[in-house]
Design brief:
The chain has 10 helices and 20 strands. The strands form 4 sheets. Strands 11, 12, 13, 14, 15, 16, 17, 18, 19 and 20 form a 10-stranded mixed sheet that branches. Strands 1, 4, 9 and 10 form a 4-stranded mixed sheet that branches. By secondary structure, it is α/β, with parallel strands linked by helices. Strand 12 and strand 13 form a beta hairpin. The protein is globular, with a radius of gyration of 24 Å.
């Protein structure tokens, strides 16, 4: 009997240790968010008692490794990044042999990540070592290798397109009255909805008209201030609202399915699918940039009040220069410390994913208290340094959400930009 009890206790202890190890290392978002929040609170408590050990001055160290594909071949020109716990980033490129080196790193624990167009983002993995590397003062840590796997660009299949009846859509802006024709669409697979939204067309004319995919921050009918004037100015507008919030990849795949239907002529017979622009802002800037990384054939994109560098937002949150609204501080904490859990900060930071981007128009209000206008300035600086086409419009006094008096200005900027690249 005693022997049986010992075996039972050994099994129970083994299961408990396995669960503890899984909870402590998993990237499964709900569990990781709870772990990251607990870790953050513990660090804040420790710093309050004993001070911040990162405030000490040490000799810098270095980190190096190789970036290879799944076949073991070197990946040149991959962007490799590590971050400090508070969001300071250190970035380099891999050379022709796939080798990278990050010098002058503050000593500490890091988890490297890498990006290259055509590949899914890579993150350092090392079994039984908590997937991190330690950089010691005055020494170089080697062997922090990264494997890049070809990105899965599969578009959700659908076997039916359901179009609603045409309705009149009207929007009044000051003395200007805009009119368009509106229809709903649904992409179906065995009656399950793959994607849905609205199509707006000019009331008169046969086209073909250039097309805009507009990704709105709220339900489409509540945001007709955007699609109706654009359609009235001679665009076919496909308007969507990503209601699944944090499932950005899933929402983007639904949008890519809509582009398939558009190019096949199923959403509109008057759309020119060879001239496509994308428009989004605020949180949906993440959808815009992710779509541009995964989809070819987009001619231009415009982003209003967008996020370009999640690490910089974390840095501003930590030093108190940014007070996130709407509970976004809890989201940042749940993402984890960016030195140990950089993957989501990195994936949705377009600043480090610039390859293949079309011409961009960046609009940002100088009074934006939710997403600092420095985000658009950072991205504009990176685009300028690479000689990539862009426009930057900083609008004095414009807050995060525009009001009626600013709509005319924003519409003019939008029209001028898309006229340049889509007409």
């Amino acid at each position: 009997m005693m022997k049986v009890r010992r075996i039972v206790w050994v099994v129970i202890m083994g299961v408990c240790l396995w669960i503890a190890a899984w909870v402590g290392t998993t990237d499964y978002v709900p569990v990781a968010a709870l772990r990251h929040t607990a870790e953050y609170r513990l660090i804040q408590w420790g710093n309050a008692l004993w001070g911040d050990p990162l405030a000490e001055h040490y000799l810098p160290g270095a980190l190096s490794g190789l970036v290879r594909d799944a076949a073991g071949q070197p990946v040149a020109e991959a962007t490799v990044l590590v971050s400090s716990p508070v969001g300071d980033t250190f970035v380099t490129k891999s050379d022709a042999t796939g080798h990278y080196r990050l010098p002058d790193l503050p000593p500490g624990i890091y988890r490297p990540v890498a990006a290259h167009r055509g590949y899914a983002d890579a993150i350092y993995r090392a079994p039984l070592r908590l997937n991190t590397v330690l950089v010691r003062p005055g020494r170089e840590t080697t062997g922090a290798n990264l494997t890049m796997v070809a990105e899965d660009l599969t578009i959700p299949a659908f076997d039916a397109v359901e179009m609603g009846s045409a309705e009149e859509a009207v929007h009044q802006e000051g003395d200007d009255l805009y009119q368009a024709r509106r229809r709903t669409y649904r992409l179906l697979r065995s009656e399950a909805v793959v994607g849905e939204g609205y199509v707006y067309e000019p009331v008169t004319g046969e086209g073909p008209w250039p097309t805009l995919l507009v990704i709105l921050p709220g339900p489409v009918l509540a945001w007709e201030v955007v699609p109706v004037p654009l359609a009235a100015q001679g665009f076919v507008v496909v308007a969507v609202y990503p209601a699944r919030k944090m499932d950005i990849a899933g929402e983007v795949d639904s949008m890519r399915a809509a582009l398939v239907a558009l190019r096949a002529g199923w959403l509109s017979t008057r759309a020119d699918a060879t001239r496509i622009g994308v428009l989004g802002g605020s949180f949906t800037s993440l959808h815009v940039y992710n779509l541009l990384q995964r989809e070819d054939g987009i001619n231009a994109a415009l982003v209003l009040g967008g996020v370009a560098d999640g690490f910089r937002i974390r840095r501003q949150f930590e030093d108190g220069t940014l007070i996130p609204a709407h509970g976004f501080d809890k989201v940042l904490i749940g993402l984890g410390l960016p030195n140990r859990a950089p993957q989501l900060y990195f994936r949705y930071s377009v600043r480090y994913h610039l390859e293949g981007l079309p011409p961009l128009c960046l609009i940002h209000g100088t009074a934006d208290g939710f997403v600092p206008h420095s985000q658009s300035e950072l991205l504009a600086g990176e685009l300028a340094a690479r000689g990539m086409p862009y426009e930057l419009h900083l609008v004095p006094g414009l807050a995060h959400y525009f009001t009626g008096k600013e709509t005319t200005l924003l519409l003019r900027i939008t029209m001028d930009f898309f006229e340049q690249y889509l007409r």
